[in-house]
């Protein structure tokens, strides 16, 4: 409005085009975004919109805009700006005696500044008060970083020192990322007000795909000029999706991508639940047929054979249709123990050896001593319960020699 009053027409200001700056440096109002509908370069007749609807910004955002304008004027005047922050940090008290940077204090102050600015969250801002990586590359020499990051750090250091920070500790949220429910409500509000998806994307930081999916899900009309996916095609796609067609098949029929089909399906929660049920039922029928066909073609197969040959089907049915699987599988074969040692025969042979050994011995003996004489197999100590005849001979010998 000031340009119209003084010059008769509004024009583009260079200081308004600085990436990341959201308010005017001359008037404490938020800037309005105007999308380029043709090419990205400036074309004839492209002038700012003459809108009287302005919104006042906060004092911190206005101060930051004026600071960036002064930096821009210095660059236009040919001054070389140095990005050596270490002397400034040392002067402000952000460097310890050992030469280390107080990262926690600096990151916390940057996070507080971003909260006070009230700008929409973008990748140019620190994610939280523990985002040390945000300014680590800014402090390194000869490392290219986005100009907005340098502006934010320089402005933060312009009127800051550790003494001020330690005097009043700010209470901050752990994360600067907004609540998803708040962003969703904001997107729906802007959609109902008739804003374009590009404008909503800039204001909220969400992608156009997210905004479009949200609009379809909530049945909110939005401005679009579809060439292929018209309203009639949408109805056909949803109808085929209800019948259980695969999204790749639907996409091939109408010459669109599978992602577009998935986006339309996701906008209908009931349809998503129905397709999930259809997929589960289809898998159940297919796996049941696989198991039944295997049992029919292999009548002598055991349960283990069935599991090894149809691993995926067996375990899916085991987890979801356990009762049905138990009734259809072959009868479980009871395992039989392989008796590798004939203890009766061993007891008979050992009894004969003990009889010959004890008949020649006149001294008292123990089980351990007898084990050594017989070869130290551990039979008399570990498996004496399986050698009743041999143990009877030993007990009788002990009674006779008492």
Protein model, in words:
The protein has 402 residues and is mainly α. Among the domains are: 2-76, no CATH class; 86-167, no CATH class; 272-328; 346-400. 56% of the residues lie in helices and 0% in strands. It has helices spanning 2-7, 59-76, 86-92, 103-117, 133-136, 147-158, 162-167, 180-192, 197-204, 208-217, 231-242, 247-254, 258-266, 269-297, 303-309, 311-320, 322-328, 343-360, 367-374, 379-382, 388-400. The longest helix has 29 residues, at 269-297. Mean pLDDT is 80; it is low at 161-176.
Outline the secondary-structure elements.
Layout: H1 2-7, H2 59-76, H3 86-92, H4 103-117, H5 133-136, H6 147-158, H7 162-167, H8 180-192, H9 197-204, H10 208-217, H11 231-242, H12 247-254, H13 258-266, H14 269-297, H15 303-309, H16 311-320, H17 322-328, H18 343-360, H19 367-374, H20 379-382, H21 388-400
Helix pairs in contact: 12-13, 14-16, 15-16, 16-17, 18-21
